[in-house]
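Why predict the complex rather than its parts? Because the way molecules touch one another can change local conformation, and only a joint prediction can capture that. The input here totals 844 residues.
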Amino acid sequence: MVKKIGIIGLGNVGEATIKMLTKYSSLIYQRSGFKIQIKAVCDKKKVKNTIAKKYSIPFEVDAFKLINDSEIDIIVELIGGIEPAKTFIIEALKKRKNVVTANKALLAQHGKQIFSLAKKVNKIVGFEASVCGAIPLIKSISDGLVCCEIREMFGILNGTTNYILTKMSKEKIDFSLALRQAQKKGFAEKNPSLDIDGIDTLHKLSILSYLCFGVWPPLDKVYTEGISKVSLLDILYAQELNYCIKLLAIAKKDGNFLDLRVHPTLISMDHPLSEVSSVYNAVFLETHPAGKLLFYGLGAGGEPTSSSIISDIVNIALQKQKIPQQEEDLKLKSINKIKARYYVRFMAYDRPGVLAQISKILALFKISIASVTQKERNKGRLVPIVMLTHEAYEANIRKAINKIDTLSVIKSPSQVLRIENL
Amino acid sequence: MVKKIGIIGLGNVGEATIKMLTKYSSLIYQRSGFKIQIKAVCDKKKVKNTIAKKYSIPFEVDAFKLINDSEIDIIVELIGGIEPAKTFIIEALKKRKNVVTANKALLAQHGKQIFSLAKKVNKIVGFEASVCGAIPLIKSISDGLVCCEIREMFGILNGTTNYILTKMSKEKIDFSLALRQAQKKGFAEKNPSLDIDGIDTLHKLSILSYLCFGVWPPLDKVYTEGISKVSLLDILYAQELNYCIKLLAIAKKDGNFLDLRVHPTLISMDHPLSEVSSVYNAVFLETHPAGKLLFYGLGAGGEPTSSSIISDIVNIALQKQKIPQQEEDLKLKSINKIKARYYVRFMAYDRPGVLAQISKILALFKISIASVTQKERNKGRLVPIVMLTHEAYEANIRKAINKIDTLSVIKSPSQVLRIENL
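Output of the joint prediction:
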């Protein structure tokens, strides 16, 4: 049997998808019984015509030529960004076409509308490639864990930031140098804000929140903190205490509340997530009855991502409707209400009584100290004092640190990072 | 809609499956639109009637009451072992019923026959629970990696042996003590041979060989070595060299050859597989175009395993036929023909010229030495000498070691373990 598709957007992922559909066409036919025929490809840049020519596929600059083609059953949207991607997907669904997309920013912001339209017209939106590139995570959760309650999710969802944190930790270099190296290698954009400020991770967390908990969160209500304030000093202190620092997307169900956040997090070196290095992604799930699960693989790159896109195409051809996710009525938990353990680094003058002043304020806010490290002695000068706390409320930590930062013995704003006991 | 099933075998997994189908019935209905109704359960032990009563399900001691029930669409076989499980599954297929099984020993030995019958009668055999208990591995490979060529597979597929190796390494205890502790905790059988001799791992490797490469290997042709000869001394030497020792199932495609083996293996401490501890399982895949992937979770236990069984049931209800695996014509590679790096521990008398004698023989067989560790000095007495080799042929290693073991300076048979550079 033949399934006809149209691909919009011939960037890295688009080109790799054409290449892999060609290279593995007989493998796909043998396994699924389907020949996937690329009826036409489209890019607004006319120069991309050369890619189409190489594979002898008709080329268009107008996406509506594909969307209005009655022979095309699946529209593969690979241009990214909000518009015109959103219009293309919505019009394709209205024309009763299935859609495959890798567009996390679009789904995070308009997923609710897109999936409800897809449900209405009884078509599928495949989005395996939108989170964790090559990892078959979406199918694993929706099909493999169909009888599981997911209780907690911890994800390393952004390769750029994980590469930078790995570099800092392994080569003992500071953030700005690691960022420059990532840019040199093509792992970070010239304007790296989307990655290093945690926005890309937030987009993917939003999609996983829908998948695991049935909730499309308002993005501005999810606490999001990037990695630019993580210093080499913190990474080294954390290492000594047997922790590493990762940018995590966190989702925890707590009764009728959903605790969603993105921030640099200390996790134990003994946890498998701590071994996820460089540009790799991973998702760790706490479920019932399946228990703890971890999925690991490449989160980006043309060829790896094309694997997920093609699996969506083939599964649609086989009418393997993904199990649809129901929306749930859970409230978002405010960051102030979370309870966590904390890593706090104070930069204080090395004078008698400093520790007493700090710990008095912590006690005032019911924060109990688990450990204190002050290695360097430098009488009268600035030294770092690192504390790990027992579980405390974020609201109390914030109040306590604000108060401590006004002390005359404290020089610069204290560094606060959250610890997760996975 | 309602799907009627019959469950044969009310051990741990059978009971947990009933419990979870009951507990999560509304979750399953909400996600899939199906009510899974357990029409009857069966166990040859009449005393298991109490379980059926608890859930108000009709109980039978005769499995054919279920197999011949025309209302039952799916037979769930959870008794394990070869017979009568094989007969039950074959008869169920002949009665045009779908089958779900967790029976790895049966599939490893008779999978070819069972899957070809299933194909003939156009029914599904769900086997997600047969490898890596709770991990949705089978669906990930067959559906998620549908356009991928799997090139290499490395699996920690047996919780018992991984528990013992983890114990030895973390608590610095020897094999027999760790085994006794595993038995005490219920992680190892009284007769632990199936686990510690690598047979259970071999069964699962056989199923993965079919899934990843389309080959059902003759079990007696797959090199299989258990963990009982791994000593604490080897684990400690390996640690010093930044390796840990895991019982791995290995599958590598090499042209028209398939290299399948089960043996204790040194892997780098920097690899994510090295963090898979205690009773956890994991599979690491080298694929194209999806790249490296790792799946991690619980490999056994009633409730975790029930998650995979129920996902098979629901996916059959939704007519999500798993993508069938084609059989391939690959030859098995003989263990003598593999090339690997080796860890060799000699127990030699500490006399001048010992190293010269050993290395002369290694050179004779074209084996080049990467590193030598001899920490203890004990003039004239026995000391361990540990060598890591560069890549060499297994056949040459065996000949060289046989020859070295006849030297008068060598006391006991030398220990040889393979290293994999993942």
